[in-house]
Specification:
Layout lengths: L3 H13 L4 H6 L11 H14 L8 H5 L7 H24 L5
Helix pairs in contact: 3-5
């Protein structure tokens, strides 16, 4: 996401929250990692689609992958969370806060 501060903050929070270390370690390669279940993969695909808008609009396939795992409110909440984190990442990348 281009913001070292944000990446450190989120990784620290995930570790404290008990995420499996292998998931965190393989997150950049989630497409090929066997450590994420179908629900997590759908959410990660949607997060990537909404984040990488320079690649074009999110695909219908990325959106459709959410339906078996999330209801309408869940999709809305996930999308809002992605949008908010993206906004914070852009501010962090632009303002370059120092790493702790």
């Amino acid at each position: 996401n281009g913001c070292g501060y944000c990446m450190d903050m989120h990784a620290t929070a995930l570790r404290k929250g008990g995420i499996e270390p292998r998931k965190l370690d393989t997150l950049p390669a989630w497409h090929e990692s066997r450590f994420f279940d179908a629900r997590e993969r759908a959410a990660l695909g949607w997060a990537e689609a909404l984040t990488r808008l320079t690649d074009g609009a999110p695909s219908q396939a990325a959106f459709d992958a959410l339906a078996p795992h999330f209801d309408e409110k869940g999709i809305s909440d996930l999308s809002m969370g992605i949008a908010v984190i993206n906004a914070w990442n852009r501010l962090g990348a632009g303002l370059l806060p120092p790493l702790p």
